[in-house]
């Protein structure tokens, strides 16, 4: 892991097409970042990705056999 110290309005370049700018530093525990990247790059907050993956796992475990069979029938329809 690369660890950098940056002040407000300073930037970090990632490759040729991503620019991360420190917009604001609030005390010791909050930093606002601006990220300029191509539209085809996904930029996601880690906690959201972890929460969605956890919810998906729980939903898969809680699914009844009837629900799984109904989903399989829907996916088997022409055009899906």
From TrEMBL:
Cytoplasm keyword on record: yes
Subcellular location field: Cytoplasm
Any Pfam family: CsrA
InterPro entries with a match to the protein in the record: CsrA, CsrA_sf
GO molecular function, a single term: mRNA 5'-UTR binding
Transmembrane segments: none
Any one biological process term the GO annotation gives: regulation of bacterial-type flagellum assembly
Broad class of the protein's primary localization: cytoplasm
GO cellular component: cytosol
Keyword annotations from UniProtKB, A to Z: Bacterial flagellum biogenesis, Cytoplasm, Repressor, RNA-binding, Translation regulation
Stored PANTHER family: CARBON STORAGE REGULATOR (PTHR34984:SF1)
Known role: A translational regulator that binds mRNA to regulate translation initiation and/or mRNA stability. Usually binds in the 5'-UTR at or near the Shine-Dalgarno sequence preventing ribosome-binding, thus repressing translation. Its main target seems to be the major flagellin gene, while its function is anatagonized by FliW.
Subunit-level organization: Homodimer; the beta-strands of each monomer intercalate to form a hydrophobic core, while the alpha-helices form wings that extend away from the core.
Similarity comment text for this entry: Belongs to the CsrA/RsmA family.
Record-given protein name: Translational regulator CsrA
Organism of this sequence: Agromyces sp. G08B096
